[in-house]
Each structure stands twice: as C-alpha cells, then as structure tokens.
Amino acid sequence: MKTNSEIYGMVVREFRKRAGLTQGQLAKLINVRQATVSRWERSEREVPLDLVGDITTACGFFYDDFLTRVDELSAASLNETPPPPTGQVTSEATLTAWTTRVIADGPDDPNLKLLLFVLQNYVDKTSWVVSGTIPQIALSASLPTGMVEDLWEELLGSPFIERVGSGEWVLRLVVPGEVEGE
Question: Distances from the Cα of 90 to the Cαs of 22, 64, 129, in angstroms?
Fold first, then answer.
C-alpha cells in the first residue's frame, strides 16, 4: 500500500511529464526550488495541499483531475481496483497484439487510425493507462485540434480503447476479442 505522500508525488511527476515540463520549469512556475519538486516526486517530502492548485494549473490540468488521479492510484494501491478485464493491454506483449489488431482490423478512416497509434505515446507502462489531452494528442498526430475534437467521440467508441472511470482523457487500450492467456 502506497502512502499519500507517494501517491501525490507520483501524480505530480505524471502531470509534469504529460505537460512536457522539467522539474526546474515546474518549480519556476509555482515559485519553489527544483529540489523541492524532486523531493515531492521521490516521496521524500509531502506535497503541500495549498500548492496542488498551482501545480495542476501550471501543468494544464484542473484540481479535480489531480484528485481523480490520486483516487485512482489510491484504490489501485489498496487492491480495490479489480484486475483488468480480458483484453486490456497490460504488458509489452499485449501492446504488440493491440498494434497488430489496429493495423489489421482498425478503422478505415486514416486519421482515426493515426489517433489510435498516437495513443501509444501516452501509455504509462506502470499502470498501463493512457492519458493525454486532445491538444496534446492532436500535436503528436500533427492534426488540427478541431479535427481531433470532431473525431474524439468516434475514437472513444472504438473497440480498441475504453475510458477509465469518468476521465475524458484517461483510457486503456483494449485488444478486441482477445482473452488473457491465449
């Protein structure tokens, strides 16, 4: 079971990396030392609750996003999260199977298929959760944000991904029809 300090540090690191910021850049934005951010991320020092809003804003997220991610990691830490359903990508092997299925059976729309491939860049290989914002994904795909916004609902309806909780940008990759252990 992880402590609150560990979980908060993990979320700070995750959000900072998703925002493309170095520890020094985040530190400057929230008016603390780089060493302080480093200590938070290594769980050597507690993240002050009064700075969570500044941290999330600096990283381009909302305070609620931070709390949602803390809850997800806390639940996983307590083993309250059930094991992933059959077919979820939870290893390099299933990621390879997923990629093969997207190539073979993915959508006909080349932009939608491209978005599916770009999602691989946002996989946290610890939790196997994909998280990124529409503007981040659009930039990675070299597509206009408006186009990605137009395709987003169709992407979410794809059999290759599923939402985690109610998070709009927190997803899992799914290999349709695959059964674990096959």
Answer: 27, 26, 9
